[in-house]
Amino acid sequence: MSSTEESQLKALRKRIDSIDEKILELISDRARCAQEVARVKMQSLPEGESPVYYRPEREAWVLNHIMELNKGPLDNEEMARLFREIMSTCLALEQPLKVAFLGPEGTFTQAAALKHFGNAVISVPMAAIDEVFREVAAGAVNFGVVPVENSTEGAINHTLDSFMEHDLHICGEVELRIHHHLLVGENTKTDRITRIYSHAQSLAQCRKWLDSHYPNVERVAVSSNADAAKRIKGEWNSAAIAGDMASDLYGLTKLHEKIEDRPDNSTRFLIIGNQEVPPTGEDKTSIIVSCRNKPGALHDLLAPFHTNGIDLTRIETRPSRSGVWSYVFFIDFRGHRHDPLIKDVLERINDSQVGVKVLGSYPKAVL
């Protein structure tokens, strides 16, 4: 390296050091502001009432604003991730959030929780989706994260059924690209694999790859991918299908990477809580509609959306758990329940249909 190049590098490193010092000072200023926000909230509340520290609409606005201002060279996803962690750490100075997720540790649901809330939250693994709902309903945690649909395999019915049983609000959504890997342990004899563990959804999402590469190997569905990863630690003839988080957490090796049948494979997760979320301008609303089984029921249900130009993003049908209704519709659409056109649609549906339950209006996934 020439003396000129060394001089240029020295100058650049000095400039980086100076920028790092400014970043440190600004992050510290932001953290002190967060502490001041907590102090002001506590002072303004009646005695005995707890403040609301986490505001989903505020977080969504900040991330969208940052991405609008971003000029590169870092892309919007990376910039949003950095700011999410800054906000998560600053919020923890006010009050660390407790977030329940479908466990055990290392699941894609935990990855979704950390993507949405950042790594400064206290994540609490639960054994079943309904347990996540119960923890949130009981106030044992601030929020819960549950999967609701996969781009390859469709709706997660356990989540839809839980919404019929619990009165909770949807406060946000997360979309996560799902990459599956075939994992082995240090004792696995890779040429003698006779069993592959994974969640039933993951086995389905990798069906064609498994048919091609391991057609005669037993496929065993377990409660989660993380559970699959834990099982193979003590077995020499088995492998697991799971993601990066489980691979790192349980010290496994990727025998084959990205084995999902569809490269755009992704899962949508919902954030559930006990608070309603004000409008942000970029919102979605989810409802449940109970209908009698009669001719034209679906047409009557959808007509107000068409008339008001409301963009439907998802419709799912589930059998009703009561003996009164034949079926229920789960519907997602763009807009907030307080928007005039949305209010009109909900009023018209409520007049013509038997029952409408608004699950929540919430900011649509930032990324």
TrEMBL record:
Q: What is its main location?
A: cytoplasm
Site residues, Essential for prephenate dehydratase activity? T267
Q: Where is the Chorismate mutase domain?
A: 3-98
Supply the EC number(s): 4.2.1.51, 5.4.99.5
Q: Quote the SMART domains the UniProt record gives.
A: CM_2
The catalytic activity, as recorded, is: prephenate + H(+) = 3-phenylpyruvate + CO2 + H2O; chorismate = prephenate
**Which residue windows are coiled coil?**
2-29
Entry GO CC: cytoplasm
Q: What pathway does the UniProt record associate with this protein?
A: Metabolic intermediate biosynthesis; prephenate biosynthesis; prephenate from chorismate: step 1/1; Amino-acid biosynthesis; L-phenylalanine biosynthesis; phenylpyruvate from prephenate: step 1/1
Localization, per the record, is: Cytoplasm
Fetch the Pfam families from UniProt. Answer: ACT, CM_2, PDT
Q: Which CDD domains match?
A: ACT_CM-PDT, PBP2_PDT_1
* Annotated protein name in UniProt: Bifunctional chorismate mutase/prephenate dehydratase
